[in-house]
Structures are given as C-alpha cells and as structure tokens.
TrEMBL record:
<dbReference type="InterPro" id="IPR007197">
    <property type="entry name" value="rSAM"/>
</dbReference>
<dbReference type="InterPro" id="IPR034422">
    <property type="entry name" value="HydE/PylB-like"/>
</dbReference>
<dbReference type="GO" id="GO:0016740">
    <property type="term" value="F:transferase activity"/>
</dbReference>
<protein>
    <submittedName>
        <fullName>Radical SAM domain-containing protein</fullName>
    </submittedName>
</protein>
<keyword id="KW-0411">Iron-sulfur</keyword>
<feature type="domain" description="Radical SAM core">
    <location>
        <begin position="54"/>
        <end position="266"/>
    </location>
</feature>
<keyword id="KW-0949">S-adenosyl-L-methionine</keyword>
<dbReference type="GO" id="GO:0051536">
    <property type="term" value="F:iron-sulfur cluster binding"/>
</dbReference>
<dbReference type="GO" id="GO:0046872">
    <property type="term" value="F:metal ion binding"/>
</dbReference>
<keyword id="KW-0408">Iron</keyword>
<keyword id="KW-0479">Metal-binding</keyword>
<dbReference type="InterPro" id="IPR013785">
    <property type="entry name" value="Aldolase_TIM"/>
</dbReference>
<dbReference type="Pfam" id="PF04055">
    <property type="entry name" value="Radical_SAM"/>
</dbReference>
<dbReference type="InterPro" id="IPR058240">
    <property type="entry name" value="rSAM_sf"/>
</dbReference>
Length: 333
C-alpha cells in the first residue's frame, strides 16, 4: 500500500503547493522499486505535461573548444587535472555554422553554444553574432559559458543570445575550483540583462547525499528558471570520481520526477541528460542533441561518440510518448 506520508507530499505538489526541504528529502529517499517511487514518477509526468502543455523540446549544443581548464571540475573531461585530452582543439567558425544550420534544419528548438574557461569571451561574442546572423531570425540561441558579470551579460544580449544555461553544481567549491557564490552572481547578472536562465540538478552521482540533492534542488527553484531537472554524472576515465561509479537511469528517472515536484509548475520544462526513455516517461520533456566538444566525452567530436543527434532525441520522446514542439522554443522569446 502506498505510504500515506508520501502520498500526502506528492498530492500537495500536484495541487500547486510548495514543498519544504524535509518533504523533498523524503521523496528523494523512497526505495527505487516501490509504489511510492512510481507514484512520484506518475505525478512528475502529469505535472510536466501540464506545465509544458504536453509538448517536449529538443535543444542542441555545440561545443566550441576543448582546452585544459584550470577550474578543474573533477567530473569534467576538460579539467586539466583529469588529463583526458592531450591536444587542445577549437572549432572553426565554418564548422560551428555548419553544425548550427544542421541542427536547425533537423528541427532543434534551440541552439546552445558552449566554451571552456580558456576561450576568450570576446571571441565568443563574434561567433554568437555570426551564428545568429546565419540562422532563421527567430531561432533561439543559448550560451553555456564560464562565469561572467553584468557587462558581459549585456554583450550577450546585444549579440542576440536569448538565454544562458548555468548551474550551481553538486560539489561546487569542493570538486571544482569555483565558489557557489560566483555561479549565483553570474545568474543574477544574466537576469539583470534580460537573459532567460536555465539550470539543473547536476551532475548527480552515487557519492551525493540526500541533503546535497535537496540543497541544490532548492537553489534551482530559487533561480526561477525556464527549466530545471536532473542530469547524472558520467564517469570520466582516470578521474578521481570514477571510483564511485554512476547512478542508474532508473534512479535518475525518480530524481527527475522529484525535481519536477519540488519545482512545481513554475518552470515550463523539466530536463534530463544524457537522453533516456525512463526519465522522459517520468516527466523529462527537454533533452539535448550534441556536436563538437563535450565535457562528458573523451572524443573530440561527440557526435561520433556519446552525443545524440536530433533524430535520436525524437526517437527517445517517441518511445516515451511525448509530442515534440515544432519551431523555435516558445520560452525564450
């Protein structure tokens, strides 16, 4: 029989009530194979359907560079401390434009451009302007960048960027060389400049406690993003975190649903990464195609390795019986 305390918490979320930290912690703590877990996932799916009008989205990220990053995020293949890539690489403007046009042609709802901290911000602005100029006028452009201030945020806005992806990651300041306050200041600057903000509970690993998951989920909620969700940590070969292994897709499906219940209906979309059917069934209605460099991959061109293309993302949503929204994302314009 479904535990009455879990039913009460889930039903409160479904009714639009804001959950407290202890309630969110209880949801994260339910046994994976249980009536409670599947009820959470059912309601997570229903809340996502209502929040997004039943339409899923596919965004497409282009990794521009791969350079040894001094921020040393231990979960990242770009981190200098992990020594994954022996030679740096930077995509040419022509390569970036080709990938962006291909993603747009295949129906991606938004294009993301990502760089490491080693890539000059001024060069990114030039690229963003060119990408924007070569795509359809209403194509949504999102930046996934290292930390920046208000002036840089205004420059992004002026270049035609619609929003940013930015997160206070699990272990921030402990397994990274970035203080959480710096991440939050970037988000604040982006909002002040009129940029939309997207975030996520990530990168989730077996090493993270329920308390950590709750703490970062509450930060996601406070950001008031276009989307939140949950993404798992992918093991980087040779990294210090590799010994912990990875969270299963089944558990991530539960976590994706818990985040939706914790966020309520305010965030239109609920994400997961990497794309998978269980999470989509549980309420993930935004996933990513990827090309170029990828902080979860050991291949310079992730489209040849871990990265999904738009068609594979469509298949994920088809298997989970989500309808994909056609056209530029409706949440960034």
């Amino acid at each position: 029989m479904l535990a009455s305390d879990i039913r009460r918490i889930v039903d409160r979320a479904r009714a639009g009530k804001q959950l407290g930290p202890d309630e969110i912690g209880e949801l994260f703590s339910v046994p994976l194979v249980s009536e409670e877990a599947y009820y959470i996932q059912y309601v997570g799916r229903e809340m996502s359907r209502e929040a997004s009008g039943g339409k899923a989205e596919i965004h497409a990220q282009i990794g521009i560079d791969n350079q040894a990053c001094p921020n040393n995020c231990e979960f990242c293949s770009f981190a200098a401390c992990n020594g994954v890539f022996k030679k740096p690489s930077i995509a040419s403007l022509e390569e970036i434009l080709e990938r962006a046009r291909d993603f747009e042609k295949n129906g991606a709802n938004a294009i993301l451009l990502m760089t490491t901290v080693a890539f000059p911000f001024e060069d990114f602005i030039v690229i963003a302007r060119e990408v924007k100029r070569h795509l359809q006028e209403d194509t949504v452009l999102i930046a996934n960048l290292p930390d920046f201030g208000y002036q840089e945020a205004m420059a992004l806005k002026d270049a035609g960027v619609n929003g940013i992806y930015h997160a206070v990651r699990l272990g921030e300041g402990e397994v990274t060389r970035i203080e959480p306050a710096k991440r939050l200041n970037t988000i604040k600057a982006a909002k002040q400049a009129g940029l939309k903000v997207c975030t996520c509970l990530e990168p989730v690993g077996p090493e993270h406690t329920i308390e950590e998951l709750v703490e970062k989920t509450l930060i996601c909620r406070d950001i008031e993003p276009v989307f939140s969700g949950a993404g798992r940590r992918i093991s980087v070969p040779g990294s210090r975190l590799e010994r912990f292994g990875m969270v299963s897709e089944a558990r991530m499906a539960l976590y994706v649903a818990v985040v939706r219940l914790a966020m309520g209906y305010g965030a239109p979309l609920n994400c997961t990464h990497e794309p998978n059917v269980p999470a989509a069934i549980a309420g993930a209605d935004i996933i990513w195609a990827e090309a170029g460099t990828n902080p979860r991959d050991t291949d310079q061109k992730t489209e040849k390795s871990r990265g999904f293309n738009v068609q594979r993302c469509r298949q994920i949503f088809k298997e989970a019986e989500w309808e994909v929204y056609e056209g530029p994302s409706q949440y960034f314009l």
